[in-house]
Amino acid sequence: MKRFWLMKSEPDAYSWSDLVRDGEGIWDGVRNYRARNNLAAMTAGDSAFFYHSNIGLEIVGVMSIVEGGLADPTDDSGRWAAVRVKPDHALAHAVTLKQVKAQPLLAEMELVRMSRLSVCEVRPEEWSLILQMAEAKPA
Question: How many Å is the Cα radius of gyration of the chain?
Fold first, then answer.
């Protein structure tokens, strides 16, 4: 069954445009156990939002999980996970954290409840609503 995720990256370290330029990338360097468990649960065919953290605070694109179950190449201990991702498409309009927090139907989203979590699961109904928000012209 396809699952949905949100993955955060600081745009000055690795941005949506960097992923688009590269065509594919390894999502690694995550050092939080809950985020690691989320990475480990991902399988090829899952989808993830690309979220610019710290600068921007917005969901900017959709990417596909190409390969799951990878060992993090930046880790020698073998306890951290990674996945291979590729860009799918940029959102028509970025969806800001402020917009997400203002939407009562997204109040239970991991992005809102666990703001420091860098890899979050997104429920199907949250995924659909955010995609609808991205199509709406910003106020």
Answer: 14
Give pLDDT tens digits for 44-66.
Answer: 999 999 999 998 999 999 999 99
At 86-120, the pLDDT tens digits run 999 999 999 999 999 999 999 999 999 998 999 99
End-to-end CA separation in angstroms for the chain: 35
- Other CB atoms within 10 Å distance of the CB of residue 79: 11
Q: Are strands 4-9 and 47-52 parallel, antiparallel or unpaired?
A: parallel
Interacting residues of 80 by C-beta distance below 8 A, sequence separation 6+: 28, 30, 31, 36, 71, 72, 74
Query: What are the boundaries of each domain within the chain?
Result: 4-135
| DSSP-derived secondary structure letter, 105 | G
CATH number of 4-135: 3.10.590.10
**Which residues of the chain form beta strands (DSSP E)?**
4-9, 25-27, 47-52, 58-71, 81-96, 119-122
Cβ 53 vs Cβ 9: under 8 Å: yes
Q: Where are the alpha helices (DSSP H) in 74-137?
A: 97-102, 110-113, 124-135
